[in-house]
Specification:
Elements lengths: L1 H10 L1 H5 L26 H18 L1 H21 L4 E9 L19 H12 L2 H11 L15 H10 L10 H15 E5 L5 E8 L2 H59 L10 H31 L7 H4 L2 H20 L8 H90 L7 E5 L12 H26 L6 H8 L3 E6 L7 H6 L4 H14 L9 E6 L6 H14 L4 E5 L7 H5 L7 H5 L5 H4 E3 L5 E4 L8 H5 L2 H13 L2 E5 L8 H8 L2 E7 L5 H13 L4 E9 L26 H6 L14
Parallel strand pairs: 5-12, 6-10, 6-11, 7-9, 7-10, 11-12
Antiparallel strand pairs: 1-3, 1-4, 2-3, 8-9
């Protein structure tokens, strides 16, 4: 150590004053997760597992809080369940059809719902109405039951409140109607209507402290609903009957008046009504038209016959051939002609016999001509008669047409009066038929509501359900515990995990130091090379060797945001490690407010860094040898009133310059950043700065502000060290701290770690202003 210090003096302070430390950049390379500088984003699967592990960590951290809330919730739920009055529920099942069975057709006058949903919804609302409850109260005479007027469900808390603020009013002192309304309100508050989905069935339940009363009230409500429906039907029929009866009387009077007016008008106008739709004149006109058609046809026929024979000269026409007289004459003539032809062979034409035969032939011809003329005359007479008959019938039809037209003119008002009379008669007949149907239907008690399952006396209480209440309390407690844990986690403004510190600072985590239990000592754990604490610090030292492009920095400052975060222990442990592996290491206690390294190392603090910075001693006089080879130590020395001024002096830069030529590594234990300017000065002077964060120690705001100040000072913050970390799968822990403030135990300025090492109780940290 003496040789090393002498080399520091030989290097001289004048050259060191010219050295200006290269400004550092407070950036980070970052390990895993999101890096705000590189912009790397984890995959969706990684994000899910990160979030899952984060929630598991929260559960493990606040497991006792969650367990306490769950146990409290279960206890409260159990006590409240056991103190709740036992309630019994009776249920009746009803079937509600859209319409009652039809005994007679068109006898129902109740309106029919257009759809099942609207109809059933209406019935459910009626079943839950106050009117049904009041009807059941009146039918069961519940107002006379003094027990029923008490609250249906009386819990322990309700009983206490009633005793304090007053009980229920005596039923005898209350009006009976008001009492029944109150009981109906109690029934409404304790009954339940539960429709069965996809059917016309509905369950009606009632809950009471008495199982017998629960069954009675349930059946009373069902009967009241059925009777109410029947009453509505009877009332509707009675109203319809009265209405129809009044309308029938009015229509009877109107019908009589209209028929009388119709009869008087018919007599006045001489209009005779027939059973047929048309009048007599119209019937005569129709008959005359039919007869005229027949006469016209006959006239046309006679005209054709007459025209055929009028110009005919022979007897070959059908009219002549079919005449018996002409046929006889033709046969006679043919016989005479035959006889004449036979005699002409032997007799002369002038022979008397021949002349006689010839005369007979001529007489027959004359008779044929006369007969033909007679037939023609008869056909002409028939034709003339047909023409005359046709003309006469046409005259008759014209007279009848005039008569019908006159009758139609006079029948307009008659038809109006007749239609009014017919309308009144039809309306009267319809109402009379409806009146008779309603009269018959009014006595039929058909209903569309049926009781499927009657309510039975419940054998076991329906409430409270101990198992369900305890399970519900457990679920509520678990949910409340999770919510409280999450809220506490959100309200916790400290850093507890490596991921949090990396997301907060964007710096790489160089090491994670586990927290020790109270039954373990830091020095003993560090002495054990196989302990988790020793392994964690070896990992930190390894990370420092790869923290820069040039490997291990020449000078490293250990600082933190607040006091008691483990930076002194970390600095000492790192210095010991590198000294043990063969590097020449200089450990400087630059915490000129609350030094602690001399206590940890068991060395003297009467002379040190402050003496050198004030010029009262040389570097060799300020340095001390240690029990560890290759490790030299410069204590803080007496506490100065102006620590920041001393650290800002050129002598401190000169000390680092000279030490860099002699030692392989300079470890500086610095003060916390917040509230002081010392750490900023030291960070600017050192090659690298390691930021120590205690898990659950400093707030996130303090960490941000501390790193921002180091960045403003252009300090090279190479990463963070997370101390007192509670690993999930490890049982290692250690407790140490940093007592901050002037003074200490025995004037040595013990911190929390040193107090434990010295087997004394440390005081609460105290911040002393340097202004």
């Amino acid at each position: 150590m003496t040789d090393a210090v002498e080399k520091l003096e030989i290097a001289g302070s004048e050259e060191a004053r010219q050295i200006v430390p290269a400004p550092g950049v407070a950036l980070a390379r970052g390990y895993g997760g999101y890096n705000q500088f590189t912009g790397a984003q984890p995959s969706s699967a990684e994000s899910f597992f990160i979030a899952f592990h984060e929630y598991v960590r929260v559960l493990r951290r606040f497991k006792w809080v969650i367990l306490a809330i769950v146990l409290a919730s279960v206890a409260i739920g159990t006590v409240r369940t056991l103190m709740t009055t036992r309630l019994y529920t009776a249920t009746v099942r009803l079937q509600i059809d859209r319409s009652a069975s039809k005994v007679i057709e068109n006898g129902n006058i109740s309106p029919v719902e257009t759809g099942d949903f609207e109809f059933l919804r209406t019935q459910y609302e009626l079943l839950q109405s106050r009117g049904i409850a009041e009807r059941a109260v009146a039918a069961l005479k519940l107002a006379d039951d003094p027990e029923f007027s008490k609250p249906v469900a009386t819990s322990f808390f309700t009983s206490i409140s009633q005793r304090i603020f007053g009980g229920k009013t005596d039923p005898s002192a209350v009006n009976r109607a008001a009492l029944e309304r109150g009981i109906a309100g109690l029934i409404l508050s304790n009954r339940l209507v539960r429709p069965i989905s996809g059917s016309r069935l509905v369950d009606l339940s009632y809950t009471d402290t008495s199982p017998v009363r629960a069954q009675a009230v349930t059946m009373g409500l069902a009967d009241a609903f059925i009777n109410s429906t029947l009453d509505k039907r009877f009332q509707a029929n009675a109203y319809a009957k009265a209405f129809l009866e009044d309308q029938l009387k009015q229509l009877q009077i109107r019908l009589q008046d209209s028929e009388k007016i119709l009869l008087d008008f018919g007599q006045k106008e001489q209009i005779l009504a027939t059973t047929e739709k048309s009048s007599i004149s119209e019937n005569n006109l129709a008959a005359a038209n039919v007869s005229l058609g027949t006469i016209v046809a006959e006239r046309i026929k006679n005209e054709q016959l007459y025209k055929q024979v009028e110009t005919a000269t022979g007897a070959s026409l059908p009219q002549f051939l079919s005449n018996p007289a002409l046929e006889g004459l033709r046969e006679k003539r043919n016989a005479l002609v035959t006889e004449y032809q036979q005699n002409i062979q032997t007799l002369k034409p002038n022979y008397p016999t021949m002349i006689e035969i010839n005369n007979k032939i001529k007489e027959t011809d004359r008779q044929l001509g006369v007969e033909i003329k007679t037939i023609k005359a008869s056909l002409k007479g028939a034709y003339d008669a047909s023409v005359a008959q046709e003309n006469e019938m046409k005259s008759r039809i014209e007279a009848l047409r005039a008569e019908v037209l006159d009758l139609q003119k006079r029948s307009i008002q008659y038809n109006i009066l007749k239609r009014e009379a017919d309308s009144n008669r039809a309306l009267y007949d319809s109402l009379l038929q409806r009146y008779k149907e309603v009269d018959v239907a009014g006595g039929i008690g058909a209903n569309n509501i049926f009781i499927i399952d009657k309510a039975e006396v419940p054998r076991s209480p329906s409430s409270p359900n101990v198992t369900n209440n305890i399970v519900l309390s457990l679920i509520i407690g678990l949910i409340l515990g999770l919510v409280v844990a999450i809220v506490l986690e959100r309200l916790d403004n400290t850093v507890t995990t490596m991921d949090e510190i990396e997301r907060l600072t964007g710096l790489a985590t160089l090491g994670v130091i586990p927290k020790l239990s109270l039954d373990k000592n830091v020095q003993d754990e560090l002495a054990d090379v196989r302990s988790g604490l020793s392994e964690a610090y070896r990992t930190l030292c390894t990370s420092l060797q790869f923290s820069t492009d040039n490997g291990l920095p020449k000078s490293i400052l250990f600082t933190s945001a607040d006091a008691a975060e483990g930076k002194s222990t970390s600095a000492l442990t790192v210095a010991r490690h590198f000294a043990n592996i063969g590097l020449k290491v200089l450990l400087i206690d630059c915490d000129l407010r609350k030094p602690s390294l001399h206590v940890k190392m068991g060395l003297d603090n009467s002379k040190g860094l402050t003496n050198y910075l004030t010029g009262s001693c040389t570097a060799s006089e300020a340095g001390q040898s240690t029990s560890i080879s290759n490790l030299s130590f410069i204590a803080s020395g007496p506490l100065p009133p102006n620590a920041s001024d001393l650290l800002a002096s050129p002598r401190f830069v000169s000390l680092l310059s000279m030490a860099g030529d002699v030692f392989n590594l300079i470890i500086i234990d610095g003060p916390p950043v917040m509230g002081l300017a010392d750490a900023q000065l030291l960070s600017a002077a050192c090659a690298a700065t390691t930021f120590v964060v205690s898990s659950g120690g400093s707030s996130k705001h303090a960490i941000r502000q501390a790193l921002k100040r180091l960045q403003f000072a252009r300090g090279n913050v190479i990463g963070t060290v997370l101390t007192r970390y509670e690993a999930k799968n490890e049982s290692y822990a250690y407790g140490y701290g940093y007592g901050y403030g002037y003074g200490g135990y025995g004037g040595y300025g013990y911190g929390h770690d040193e107090a434990i090492a010295a087997n004394v109780t440390p005081p609460a940290p105290k911040l002393v202003s340097t202004l």
